[in-house]
């Protein structure tokens, strides 16, 4: 690092194969809007989910073009909804176990898994590290950094619940992808942004994704 240069400390964002790729897109947009750097890991399973939910591919060789198109799309599938700059994003292939985030000496602020599938939850809870996403999560825990796991599944069986308790015991924040309605949602994007906003709340990153509760009944029914 050159004298006077600030060390880059990104948030690692892992996208697993659970349904809910709009949650990941909203969280990524908000992190970048807040001036945060992002290291992105998109699992192999999540690429199939992304293709199914949006019709968009995510390819390692074309990740910048694919990411721009994905983040520009609204939760309703409309392209060109958002204008996003991705200069502060670094992409790591899910199969690259020699990547920066695989080591505890690699500087990061923490990790957000959005959305987190039950398979991903199990892998992290058991310390399997079968791909870079799971390995980066294990590293985040062992280094005592913030790990937010936005699990997206229903119903939850006993095995998954035990895995989630294990993650909580290990210091992770377990955050079910459960939209709320008190914020006055009028569009699917509002519901998506609420979940993404709660993820950023857990990470301590400022944002303006949803209207916060102010202790006044009926506030969500009024236009903002």
TrEMBL record:
Its EC number is 2.5.1.129. Flavin prenyltransferase that catalyzes the synthesis of the prenylated FMN cofactor (prenyl-FMN) for 4-hydroxy-3-polyprenylbenzoic acid decarboxylase UbiD. The prenyltransferase is metal-independent and links a dimethylallyl moiety from dimethylallyl monophosphate (DMAP) to the flavin N5 and C6 atoms of FMN. It holds the Pfam family Flavoprotein. Residues 11-202 form the Flavoprotein domain. This is Flavin prenyltransferase UbiX. HAMAP family: ubiX_pad. It is an enzyme of class 2 (transferase). The keyword Iron-sulfur does not apply. It comes from Streptomyces mirabilis. Keywords: Flavoprotein, FMN, Prenyltransferase, Transferase. It catalyses: dimethylallyl phosphate + FMNH2 = prenylated FMNH2 + phosphate. Dimethylallyl phosphate binds at residues 182, 198. One of its GO terms (molecular function) is flavin prenyltransferase activity. Belongs to the UbiX/PAD1 family. It comes from the Bacteria. FMN binds at residues 17-19, 43, 152.
């Amino acid at each position: 690092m050159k004298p006077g240069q600030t060390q880059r400390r990104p948030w690692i964002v892992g996208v697993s194969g659970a349904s809910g790729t709009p949650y990941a897109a909203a969280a990524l947009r908000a992190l970048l809007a807040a001036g945060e750097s992002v290291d992105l890991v998109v699992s192999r399973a999540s690429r199939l989910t992304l293709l199914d939910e949006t019709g968009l591919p995510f390819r390692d060789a074309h990740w910048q073009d694919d990411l721009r198109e994905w983040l520009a799309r609204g939760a309703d599938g409309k392209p060109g909804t958002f204008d996003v700059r991705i200069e502060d994003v670094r992409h790591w292939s899910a199969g690259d176990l020699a990547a920066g985030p695989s080591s505890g000496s690699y500087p990061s602020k923490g990790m957000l898994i959005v959305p987190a599938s039950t398979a991903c939850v199990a892998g992290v809870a058991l310390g399997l590290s079968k791909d870079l996403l799971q390995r980066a999560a294990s590293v985040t825990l062992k280094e005592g950094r913030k790990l937010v796991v936005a699990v997206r599944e229903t119903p939850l069986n006993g095995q998954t619940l035990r895995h989630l308790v294990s993650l909580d015991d290990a210091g992770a924040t377990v955050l079910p992808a459960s939209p709320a309605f008190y914020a006055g949602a009028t569009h699917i994007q509002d519901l998506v942004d609420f979940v993404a906003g709660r993820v950023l709340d857990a990470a301590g990153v400022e944002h303006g994704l949803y209207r916060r509760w102010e202790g006044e009944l009926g506030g969500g029914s009024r236009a903002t």
